[in-house]
From TrEMBL:
Protein name: SpoIIE family protein phosphatase
Domain PPM-type phosphatase: 520-722
Pfam families to which the protein is assigned, alphabetical: SpoIIE, SpoIIE_N
Keyword Hydrolase carried by entry: yes
Tagged with keyword Transmembrane helix: yes
Residue stretches spanning the membrane: 12-32, 39-67, 73-91, 98-116, 155-185, 197-215, 236-255, 261-279
InterPro entries given in the database record: Bact_Sigma-Reg, PPM-type-like_dom_sf, PPM-type_phosphatase-like_dom, SpoIIE_N
SMART domains (UniProt xref): PP2C_SIG
Annotated keywords: Hydrolase, Membrane, Transmembrane, Transmembrane helix
Length: 726
């Protein structure tokens, strides 16, 4: 399971603004109908979004190249667009999703004024609009400068931009342009696939024809040979190049073939490709003879975590328990009544010792006095009414403290009873060992449904993905899809896909079925925190455990280090209990009891716990006293409210949870209450923009907007996005 976590400060890299500067100069020579605006305008939008440094580099290059080429048309258009953007931004009318339309619409009157006909204007405007949307895909790469934001779509856009830079050199030298264009496309196909690169090749072919219509043969010589990779695309470098070279034997049938020219523009890219370093990540597999040692290391790791948990629990109870001392309350009565009494020496300090009046204070604190006691007090005490009033008041305090200490002792006993749950750890070890007989259990389960199973083999591809190979007598495809697969999915609690089903030879007499289990989704996560004091009182924890991945947020009471200490303890104990095999319900009860005893109700923490099970694509959300969380799905926002008191506040906690199926592009947002009461309105207002952002962009955007309206409190925002693994 994958989890991408980014929480780093952004640093300025000057190499990218320099690249923008030189790219602007190069693209100014890629002209269609004597204008380079279809390529310069998208780069202008990229520079505008990336920051002032990039915009300055772009404008400097534009002004310089326009002065050299005496191109007033381009510089007037760019300045007009720049003023339009700042005017719309000043009037708060600028919207990200409309900026490409606005910019291209402004081009129409300029083209009309410069005597372009309707067809020319339409082609140029549509091409500019397409390039604007294409180039906007690379903006996150420039802003974040992090490989984790790189996906297939953005990589394709980057390839188009680089190839367009190559095409810009056509007016200077067509031969070398085609050489480097081929070389770069070959690398792209080799490391991606022909399916992902062919749309790029077709688009580049259109650009080549628009820039230089005489390059028809060069375009065909580019498209036709690379189309052969649809039939086979080997990952072996030499075989890959061999197929590419052989594919050119068809060219003389389609174009006027200049053998010397095409030999040069084909063989040089091949040579460059062959000498290029190969970037391949090879998985390191453990040697079979060390598997047993690895398993022992896992057991040792479990034991270490178990010891760490006991140590942490012991530290919590190092603080001395409060005891109720009778002498303290006797002293209170003495201070109230007897301290200034003229007879105190007779009652407390005579040679015979403490008088009966002094002893009756001790008796009256512990229980109600009898009639003889009242008579004695009225006969011998100088202030009998004050004596009895003080005695009655402090008796209430004594009984109240006895009750509190009794409850404290009761909770303490409950905690030690909770330790019996630790026996589940050994059950967890037993389950790990028992997994070796997993195939046998599946086989017996199928036989219980009266399937005649000849053999069953589980082939593990890695920890999360595997294949099931099953041989069953007398079964058809309908029975496999409607009965066998649902039975196995229900038993394994995992999704299965049918790979193949085929009849074996008649003498064998069974059907061979191949099933596979692969994780459909992965998670991307980003987070940001703000501390009102030197230390943020919120704590965040993420960790994976078998098929689960947990994301937890805890908000300690108050701010600063004390709140942080409590929230961190909550998450540390939570993770240790779960990692040692304790069931989730038992873990939460133990955690609540621990904090209740430790803090005696004076300190508590909230808990947001998101339990992702990527094996069956489900999510369980548990909230105790936490601020509301949000799910953005299918252009709607669902609010996940809390249904319980915070952890450590009450003796028992009612466990209420959300259980849901996760879907691709789900966006989940966890927050502490420091984001303020306007956060939901903020989500609704910018929902469309948020759905188009990456998790890194979302968390930065929401943090900035929330900070403008935030209350005086610590603030934490976590954004999780569900992404298809493919």
């Amino acid at each position: 399971m994958d989890l991408v976590i980014v929480n780093k400060q952004k640093h300025v890299h000057y190499i990218l603004p320099i690249i923008i500067f030189f790219s602007t100069i190069i693209l100014s020579y890629a002209k269609i109908q004597e204008t380079a605006l279809p390529f310069l305008l998208p780069l202008f939008i990229v520079s505008f979004y990336s920051g002032y440094l990039y915009l300055i580099c772009f404008l400097t290059a534009i002004i310089g190249i326009s002065i050299i080429n005496q191109d007033t048309f381009t510089i007037v258009v760019i300045i007009t667009l720049l003023l339009t953007i700042y005017l719309l931004n000043f009037t708060h009318l600028l919207r990200t999703k409309y900026i490409s339309f606005i910019m291209t619409a402004i081009l129409i009157p300029f083209f009309y004024a410069n005597h372009y006909n309707i067809l020319q204007t339409t082609v140029l405007v549509m091409l500019t609009l397409f390039n604007c949307y294409l180039d906007q895909e690379i903006i996150p790469l420039i802003i974040h400068q992090n490989k984790n934001v790189l996906n297939i779509k953005r990589l394709q856009a980057l390839i188009v931009v680089v190839c367009t830079l190559f095409i810009s050199f056509i007016p200077f030298n067509t031969t070398y342009t085609m050489i480097f264009l081929r070389y770069f496309l070959l690398i792209s196909i080799y490391y991606l696939s022909i399916e992902k690169v062919m749309p790029i090749i077709l688009y580049l072919s259109i650009l080549l024809m628009l820039i230089a219509p005489s390059l028809k043969d060069d375009v065909l010589s580019l498209i036709l040979p690379m189309s052969f990779f649809f039939m086979i695309q080997p990952k072996n470098k030499y075989l890959f190049m061999s197929i590419f070279l052989l594919s050119h034997i068809t060219l003389p049938f389609f174009i006027n073939y200049n053998y010397f020219y095409y030999a040069f523009v084909i063989l040089v890219p091949v040579f460059l490709f062959m000498i290029s370093p190969q970037f391949k990540n090879k998985k390191i597999k453990i040697n079979p003879e060390f598997i047993e040692i690895s398993y022992q290391e896992q057991l040792k790791s479990k034991a270490d975590a178990f010891a760490s948990l006991f140590h942490q629990l012991t530290e919590v109870f190092k603080e001395e328990n409060q005891e109720t001392h009778l002498s303290e309350y006797v002293g209170y009565v003495y201070e109230d009544v007897c301290h200034h009494c003229s007879s105190k020496k007779y009652c407390f300090y005579s040679q015979e010792g403490m008088s009966r009046l002094g002893k009756l204070i001790s008796k009256g604190i512990q229980k109600d006095l009898e009639v003889d006691d009242y008579n004695y007090i009225y006969q011998h005490c100088l202030k009998p009414d004050d004596y009895l009033k003080s005695l009655k008041n402090h008796q209430k305090g004594y009984f109240k403290m006895l009750k509190v200490n009794h409850a404290h002792d009761h909770l303490k006993k409950d905690l030690f009873q909770e330790f019996s749950i630790m026996g589940h750890v050994f059950q967890n070890f037993s389950k790990k060992i028992d997994e070796q007989d997993n195939e046998k259990k599946i086989l017996e389960h199928l036989k219980a449904y009266h399937f005649e199973v000849y053999y069953l083999k589980k082939i593990k591809k890695d920890y999360e993905n595997y294949m099931l190979e099953i041989g069953i007598e007398d079964i058809d495809e309908k029975t496999v899809t409607e009965e066998l697969i649902p039975i196995l999915e229900n038993y394994l609690n995992e999704s299965l896909d049918l790979v193949s089903i085929k009849k074996q030879h008649l003498q064998i007499g069974y059907t061979s079925i191949l099933l596979k289990h692969e994780l459909k989704y992965t998670l991307q996560l980003a987070k940001k925190q703000y501390a009102l004091d030197q230390q943020c009182g919120d704590s965040i924890l993420t960790f994976g455990l078998d098929e689960h991945h947990y994301v937890a947020l805890s908000d300690g009471m108050g701010q600063g280090y004390i709140a942080y200490k409590e929230s961190k303890l909550t998450l540390d104990v939570l993770s240790q209990l779960l990692k040692n095999g304790i069931q989730l319900r038992d873990t939460l009860n133990t955690l609540n009891t621990l904090l209740k005893i430790k803090n005696q109700g004076d300190m508590y923490t909230t808990l947001d716990l998101f339990d992702f099970n990527l094996m069956n694509s489900r999510l369980k959300v548990i909230k105790y006293g936490a601020y509301e969380s949000y799910l953005i799905r299918n252009h709607q926002i669902d609010v996940l409210h809390s249904h319980s008191l915070p952890v450590g506040m009450a003796s028992t906690m009612k466990m209420v949870s959300y259980d849901m199926k996760i879907k691709e592009n789900d966006i989940l947002i966890l927050t502490s209450d420091g984001v303020g009461e306007h956060f939901f309105d903020l989500l609704k207002k910018y929902q469309e923009e948020i759905e188009k952002m990456s998790v890194y962009e979302i968390v930065s955007f929401l943090f900035q907007k929330s900070f403008q309206k935030k209350d005086l409190d610590d603030m934490s925002i976590i954004v999780i996005k569900v992404v298809n693994r493919n």
